[in-house]
Amino acid sequence: MKIVMATFVLLGLAGRVPAATVLVEAEAFDDYGGWVDDSQFMDQMGSPFLLAHGLGRPVEDATTMVPLPATGTYRVWVRTRDWVAPWNAPGTPGRFQVLVDGKPLKTEFGTEGAAWHWHDGGQIVIDTQKIAVALHDLTGFEGRCDAILFAADSDFIPPNKDPDMATWRRKLLKLSEQPQQAGQFDLVVVGGGIAGTCAAISAARLGLDVALVQDRPVLGGNNSSEVRVWLQGKRNLPPYPRVGDVVAELEQQKAAHYGPTNTAELYEDDKKLAVVRAEKNVSLFLMHRVNRAYTRDGRITAVVAQQTRTGRRVRFAGRWFADCTGDGCVGALAGADFELTPKGHMGRCNLWNVAETDQPVAFPRCEWALNLADKPFPGRTDGRGLLALGGWYWESGFDHDPFRYSETIRDWNFRAMYGAWDALKNIDKKYPNHRLNWAAHVSGKRESRRLLGDVILSKEDLLGSKKYPDGCVPTGWKIDLHLPEKRYEKGFEGDAFIAKALFTDYPRPYWIPYRCLYSRNVPNLFMAGRDVSVTHDALGSVRVMRTGGCMGEIVGMAAALCKRYDADPRAVYENYLDELKKLMGEGVGKRSGTAGEN
Questions:
Q1: Residue pLDDT, tens place only, 326-347
Q2: Are 17 and 82 contained in the same domain?
């Protein structure tokens, strides 16, 4: 049997090639065209995929050249799905074609199946051993493709479920069963948001050999050009005015805001990357998703990450680890205690905006989107107009498992956006010269797992100003919990897509105890960011990014003491707290920051 899989490695497609044929290497590919890398769902998919994120305008083709072992007849399989089928929505917005040497296969893809599956594209006769393969988007409405397979055996059906599919793919890609060794590190930081980036920089400046493992091509997480959320919280406050110096180094010069002026360059992705790459003790691994942890006697010994475009696996050994994923991924893999509020947790956003052009712009009816023809939503009925579209309160997922339904929650945000714009343009006949300008395809998350430490900070602690001897990170944000907005929930009960913020004030700043920043049962695991040891209510205050960045700075300092004394995170509190406070007074920034604002 001869099988060839067109492997869109650089493009984010996780196709696989059997040993009997030729693997399409990464350097053989062209660019993405207009498709975007959707590797954020690798934990669900086991592989990344490409997304035709065109906001209703078909995107440019993604292309590559594929060598075949022989000419002849091949059956083509395309792994994809109809992304609105989980809701039995009418229409198929994610339609696309596969072109072989410029000619489309007869089958259109993205037209069937709520789940990811191999869609049979029929047989074609190929008379050359090197073919041009392209993904040709037909709609601009979020079509998606995982892999393309060319099989000379017309009876062959590729496996679709793990572990069989994962094993089959690794074999066809000729990937080693054993991951490549990245090396031995003092501290392995997983997650390159503001918290993780600050942890890596802080530890490196104090002499540790650090690996920073990030699953996206940029740093900053929610504060990146991919998600576009600006920093909130406080930093550089007495009695530790140097805590926050590293956050200040990463912070943007201009404050971002909603609407079409919330542009990518405001987030200064290159500056964050430059600050990290200037640290000689930091080894930066972008586009690597950690999906396995090795433990011995309850301690983490190593984590394994999968390169999101090639499928290559890399092993990072370390003495200490920092879970800065926001989702508590490393902790969960290592058996750390955690809590997750199953219903009523805060949701996630995909920010979006519209822009005016100098001529009329049509927008197609979206019968598959949320039907908002006669429904109120911000920007339609509240008098705020365009400024109310696509803000933080366009949020969903409150009652859904944030991991199992991750892709579904993001897609619900898409359906809300497209439904609202359809209603404004085609029902209300407003904004004839406006178009959808930008939408984040990577969700901005607020809440999932919270790893448990020796102290679980509570709302009552904040309200009562309870003082802990190890207070180390200043809060500057009110308790800010997001709930479904009842005015807009009718007809969407259990699937709200508009949120309201419930604010509770308390005496600020409050100093979060260090004991919230390490695991109570995995002795060499730190955490920083929104997955630290707090209750659901307290998370409403500590989850903002300046605060998370300060947590990262403290983790780096504590890790340095762990190395100095060959100790674990708990021992820093028990035996070396005064030394931690000394480091907090000195700071690790290259210059002293000034007090950050809410």
A1: 999 999 999 999 999 999 999 9
A2: yes
